[in-house]
UniProtKB/TrEMBL annotation:
It comes from the Archaea. Keywords: Membrane, Transmembrane, Transmembrane helix. The chain crosses the membrane at residues 12-33, 45-68, 80-99, 119-143, 164-186. This is Putative membrane protein. InterPro entries: DUF420. The lineage of its organism: Archaea, Methanobacteriati, Methanobacteriota, Stenosarchaea group, Halobacteria. The keyword Metal-binding does not apply. The keyword Aminoacyl-tRNA synthetase does not apply. Pfam families: DUF420. PANTHER family: DUF420 DOMAIN-CONTAINING PROTEIN, HYPOTHETICAL MEMBRANE SPANNING PROTEIN.
Amino acid sequence: MELQRARNHVPALTVALTTVSLALVFGAILGAIPANSLPRAPESFLNAIPHVNAVVSTVAIGTILAGVRFIRRGEVERHRAMMLASLALFVTFLVLYLYRITMEGTTEFGGPETIYRFVYLPTLAVHILLAVVCIPLLYYVLLLATTRPVAELYETSHKRIGRVAATLWLVSFTLGNVVYALLYWLY
């Protein structure tokens, strides 16, 4: 019965989940979530988060690409497994990122002003924009996929929106790794 209700309200659920998710993200980034509301992890854990998240992002790029490859071959169950793995990696990334942001704030760019203005900021802006745009698209295709049998998915916009979501997701994860390299390796 609950699945049927969810199935009939995919757009509304997408809006609700997106709203909650973006409120958490922007709440953490803008400092609306007080750091003392969460238990403080050791400094070594906080310092490891960007590096762990770079690995998580890289693995997610691989699982998204594998998911795309599997669906092109008609291997629906393997596609589903890869996309659910990608979602789990995204959630892991986001929880770690938001925790670190809440506890430490944002990381300042330490490179030259010209690189900051013409490389770092545009890359970061596109990464953030794509990440924000991906959230409702991912919720939508996930809700479609989890509330319908596979045969019925072909009658929905899952394939069309899923292609866009996967592409934007890949670019966002890749640009996130570029931002990571600029912040933690090059400068």
